[in-house]
Write a structure and sequence with these properties.
The structure is a homodimer. With about 450 residues, chain A is an alpha+beta fold. Chain A folds into two domains: about 260 residues, 2-methylcitrate dehydratase PrpD (Orthogonal Bundle); about 120 residues, 2-methylcitrate dehydratase PrpD (60s Ribosomal Protein L30, Chain: A). Helix content of chain A is about 50%, strand content about 5%. The first copy, chain A, has a four-stranded mixed β-sheet. A two-stranded antiparallel sheet of chain A has the order 1-2. A two-stranded antiparallel sheet of chain A has the order 3-4. In chain A, helix 8 packs antiparallel against helix 9. The termini of chain A are far apart. At the A-B interface, helix 3, helix 4, helix 9, helix 10 and helix 11 of A face helix 3, helix 4, helix 9, helix 10 and helix 11 of B.
Chain lengths: ~450, ~450
């Protein structure tokens, strides 16, 4: 089966009038959430260091560094904004594949939309098609591909960026086949980088590399016609299993973006059930840290595999520690960016409680579930089974939740009225005359009184 | 074992005075050969299309597009020059791994040497260290990694570029560890792209991505400390076997660049024994195509796997056809770029002879060997066993051969006196005050009277 060609044909041929309204709305939710992530992290040292290293290589200032205002060429802007949007691990999640879909796609096409005229409806359509491409490719190789050690957001994301950018560039079917092939041969990103600055670069690389694939293909730069399915193509080289039907079946009838979810907490999604349950118990019983003797978590295996750090040393490492996350949930009743600062990870009270948290795999438990047994010092035992963590498909964040999250994220970067205006533009992205307007609207109109400090608190 | 750290420590700590003279000389040979390849292909449509797509994204004109003179930012120049140097498949080969070592490394650091002051001795040293890093990493995963479908020139090359650029940037040991990690997470490039324009982009991507890794690390941008050897690092994710000792044993005592070879023919190295033997028989017996009834080749399995195209349709595909290569060797007594033009691949005389060539795996035969049985129409049978093809380690090209190859490559781009001057600069690269001078010396001082046509002959 010609998988790459079938996908290319769909991407270039789909009529945007056939996009259901619910899909458009979910795309706007995804876009708003992505924008909040990118703006919220724009002063983080990961972004600062990337800009310090790379800005001097920038071409003409086609596009905006979100939340900051420096202008970079569109490829470099895509890279930096893609990185910014993933720094806090607070972006969206396609739960079937653990892909964070918006980063690679939105970062690529928003930068492109500042370089060339792109109407909002075309932008939203390309965004949905890009997410569709990357998530279907992810579905076709998940979980074996991920289990091999690939960061699927990066490896599948490059296809999404190529598809979306290629659609905006008006590629022919053959050019789109080539673009997907050039994406395939750049597909990279190792899970080994989790917990380091290199991880958030992955969606940035995917965005830039996917855009580059589309730009080359637009000039009839050739690649394989079977970049995805050939014996030495993406699927067989980067995965031990491949289900091509996941890419080609019911194209245009189902939409992967409808399965997108948003994180209420600024850490790995597999920790969310534990945080959710601990915040519930804390609030219901008015718990203080000193009340808690021990906490035993029954979790899905991935929670230990991905977030099993017993003794994190930095805020970034704290995001990969279900022990730290559980401790701050009890102490602060929250798990936002503030709970993942370096100082808090080293705080004696947090460390003391963290060391009283244990976690073990509980057979049969799902990824968005947890069983919590909290032993109190007064002799009581509290139990909580979380059926669906907040933010999961079974208990999605509402539009109001998402906007509140957005406002919390951009606080300290944008003054409140501007944050509201930016949120409105994101909700309206599909109706704008000029999609690139949103990027420029993310630049602070004036200095904010209490700028958010660099999270890790190191030299700037 | 801390493989990544051991390699990083070696790269940042090695004293260039300990580089044997023979190693320096081999490095100059490699550099000259690489330069000839890059200049020779600089007007090829692959380069034209890449520039058409990407030049408008270029930052300040730090560095030269070799043989042409456009100036691009150093990262983009590294990408374009790396691609140019591989377009004709005429670059160097580390036979143990089939890595083409110079492309990723030289393309990165020559562009860097135009952006910052780099003395020739430091340049040559960094070049040798970069080649050492990529080839040792290649040795550690070859052949399993290659057999999986990875284009090892790209996947290992990114480490070489990071190592060499990082050495010139003066990275600390820890920064070099990070640079190798950022390289690891960008490692990509599929053999599926062979025979398309995407293939020569691979060393270009490796050069640019490796340089970017070093630039980020210089700003303390973190990555894994075990990017190569961790369970989810490069070696285990991209290969089914890993021999870490190949990276760490006898560092500074042996030099992989000493094992580098150069192609006398403009096609896949596994075809060279057949070409060499057929040219010998042709010249010894004064053969004309019409004299030949049939040619039967006994070859190494890779010759069929890599160059088994029975009916190539383009010059590029012709490079991957041992049948075409054998035919032109008999007809023209040569296998240079001229023998891989689109027109020649479609020439009836070439097709007629090509169809009389057969090839089969001969057990026990090595990659640089072939057994040729040529049946003539007059009833005679000619046999030739090629023990070592010209250009192999057993029968290396001399310095004079290399310079003749260089002059043939740059003919049509540079006038003869300038070609000579550029060759001298390449031989002297280790003694120049300013290594970047070589790049500028590759730009035609005046229009050449008979510019080489675009090989594929398509629209420009």
């Amino acid at each position: 089966m010609e998988v790459t060609r079938a996908l290319a044909r769909f991407i270039v041929g789909h009529d945007r009038r056939e996009l259901p309204e619910s899909v458009r709305h979910e795309a706007a939710r995804s876009f708003l959430n992505w924008m909040g992530c990118a703006v919220g992290a724009c002063r983080h040292e990961t972004v600062e260091r990337a800009l310090a290293a790379l800005a001097e290589f920038s071409g003409p200032g086609h596009a905006t560094v979100l939340g900051r205002g420096e202008r970079l060429d569109a490829m470099l802007a895509a890279l930096v904004n893609g990185a910014s949007s993933h720094v806090f691990d607070f972006d969206d999640t396609h739960l079937k594949t653990v892909i964070h879909p918006s980063g690679p796609v939105a970062s690529a096409i928003l930068a492109l939309a500042e370089k060339m005229p792109v109407r909002g409806d075309a932008f939203l359509h390309a965004f949905v098609l890009g997410v569709e491409a990357e998530c279907r490719i992810g579905n076709a190789v998940y979980p074996e591909h991920y289990d091999t050690g690939w960061h699927i957001t990066a490896t599948a994301g490059v296809f999404g960026a190529a598809a979306a950018a290629g659609r905006l560039l008006g590629l022919s079917e053959q050019q789109m086949v080539w673009a997907l092939g050039i994406a395939a041969t750049q597909s990279s990103g190792l899970r080994e980088m989790f917990g380091t600055m290199a991880k958030p670069m992955h969606p940035g690389f995917a965005a830039r590399n996917g855009m580059l694939a589309a730009l080359l293909a637009a000039r009839d730069f050739t690649s394989s016609n079977r970049g995805i399915e050939a014996p030495r193509g993406f699927a067989h080289v980067l995965s031990t299993a491949f289900k091509p039907g996941e890419i080609t079946a019911r194209l245009g009838e189902t939409w992967e973006i409808s399965l997108n979810t948003y994180k209420p907490y600024a850490c790995g999604i597999v920790e969310h059930p534990a945080i959710d349950g601990c915040i519930q118990l804390r609030n219901e019983h008015g718990l203080k840290p000193a009340d808690v003797e021990s906490i035993a978590l029954g979790v899905h295996p991935l929670a230990l595999e991905l977030t099993g750090r017993k003794a994190p040393r930095t805020g970034l490492e704290g995001k990969f520690s279900v022990y730290h996350s559980t401790a701050v949930a009890v102490i602060h009743g929250a798990a936002g960016e503030a709970q993942y600062g370096d100082a808090l990870v080293r705080d004696p009270e947090v460390i003391a409680l963290r060391e009283r948290v244990s976690a073990a795999v509980e057979p049969g438990i799902h990824e968005d579930q947890v069983r919590i047994r909290m032993q109190l010092r007064d002799g009581r035992t509290l139990e909580r089974f979380v059926e669906h963590a907040v933010g999961s498909l079974g208990k999605p964040m509402s539009d109001a939740d998402l906007e509140a999250k957005f406002r919390g994220q951009v606080e300290g970067i944008l003054a409140r009225p501007q944050a509201g205006a930016l949120a409105r533009l994101c909700w309206d992205i599909g109706r704008l005359e000029d999609a690139g307007e949103v990027a420029r609207a993310s630049v602070p109109a004036r200095a904010v009184r209490n700028p958010r400090p660099t999270i890790a608190g190191e030299r700037r």
